[in-house]
Amino acid sequence: MNTQTMEPGFRDSVDQMFNRAVGLMDLSPGLEEKIRVCNATYTVRFGVRLRGKIQTFTGYRSVHSEHMEPVKGGIRYSMGVDQQEVEALAALMTYKCALVEAPFGGSKGGLCIDPREWDEHELELITRRFAYELIKRDLINPSQNVPAPDMGTGEREMAWIADQYKRMHTTDINGNACVTGKPLNAGGIAGRVEATGRGVQYALRAFFRDEEGVKKSGMSGDLDGKRIIVQGLGNVGYHAAKFLSEEDGSVITGVIERDGALFNPDGIDVEKVREWIAKHGGIAGYADRHYLENGAKILEEECDILIPAALEGVINLQNADRIKAALIIEAANGPVTAGADEILRDKNVVIIPDMYANAGGVTVSYFEWVKNLSHIRFGRMGRRQEESRHQLLITELERLSKDKDLGWSLSPDFKDKYLRGAGELELVRSGLDDTMRIAYQSMADVWHGRDDVTDLRTAAYLVAIGKVAASYRAKGL
Ligand code: GLU
């Protein structure tokens, strides 16, 4: 409980949302409890000799549900990491994987560390040591527990973890599948870095295809011209904002970062801001006339869509009432507390919930894991075959036009696009798009189809819990 705001902590907030949904289901109390509880949380404290002395670190790996194995979920590096945060995030992984039909149970890990305080070599030593502690207990393992990047970690850390696993399991031919989110040249997959942001874009496109949903939000039309405020220009927020502004005609009117915010109703150039942050470590100093030190205030600005893509709990009892967005899409995990969720529901703000909105990451992780187990790049077998069949058709059309003197000519742009067979990136994006559309539809069917379900989050929980329950039942539980 946060005593200042009288709000429950993150773990309780997730449970409250779960309970709300489960109250509308007909599960036996035993099964309900089995799904809700976190199976196990492992805490490790280890020392690494750095800067002339032994530094002690605390890390966690929590396994929420093993109804399917391996269990899956990222490893976070942040000073906010503690047992309840990791458990809440592990629970969300269970529901997320179920909702998007990634065949995994839910897990999450974290290390209580500020990664900006350590240099690369030190981080490598710390990461390898943490990985060693988890690997030796099978808490990192291709068939049991497969981590991935999360806040504060990325491709680099995943490459160290994979390498550490392979050093400890020299004959495991599937070693690369022990972790996802690796760099492309170390067993990764094309499109994993952009995946979560890309998933947010696909989720929004799916929403705007749903006329009934759009009507419930009080908006109309599509993404073109919609004003968007993004909180957090890290990997997820940056890619989402970039794709939405470059490909869907949306206007990014606000960007909120750790050290303040930018607000410009005419639109912000996401690419330039990202470059500025990379160089200066924050947004202060970029376009002063649009800069505001109190970044949180911008969450409450007029806009169509709000994308919290940073921390949990940023929309809470303190500010929920003042949020003006018609639609919130939770690119982060848990950005809206259970209390704020209730206030926003009363205000008819539509919330696309985290377990769906940011599922692009784990979806592409699933593709990477399958790629690692099959030891072949997607598209390698079929691409040229596809191209030669398309060439056959083009040649025939051109022959017909010539023989019959029809005067047809195919536009070079069409020919170029049609002839190009799908490579790994195209296949990954297609698989992700398909996943996001199907999962959206499953939530929307419940949202629009049941009188007792008035929001997408409850619909998402109902679908996800239903799937986890079915899989426990199939096991005879
Ligand atoms: N950390 C990401 C999440 O919260 C990705 C997890 C994964 O790819 O396993 O969904």
Provide key terms for this protein:
477 residues, Rossmann fold, 7-stranded mixed beta sheet, 6-stranded mixed beta sheet, globular, binds glutamic acid
Overall description:
- The chain has helices at 10-22, 29-36, 83-99, 120-135, 155-168, 195-209, 211-217, 235-247, 270-280, 338-346, 354-357, 360-374, 383-403, 412-419, 424-449, 456-474, and strands at residues 40-50, 53-65, 71-72, 75-78, 105-112, 145-146, 227-231, 251-257, 260-263, 291-292, 305-308, 327-329, 350-352.
- It is of the alpha/beta class and 477 residues long.
- Among the domains are: 41-186, Leucine Dehydrogenase, chain A, domain 1 (Rossmann fold); 219-347, Rossmann fold.
- Strand 12 (327-329), helix 10 (338-346) and strand 13 form a beta-alpha-beta unit.
- Helix 3 (83-99) crosses helix 16 and helix 12 crosses helix 15 (424-449).
- The structure holds glutamic acid (GLU).
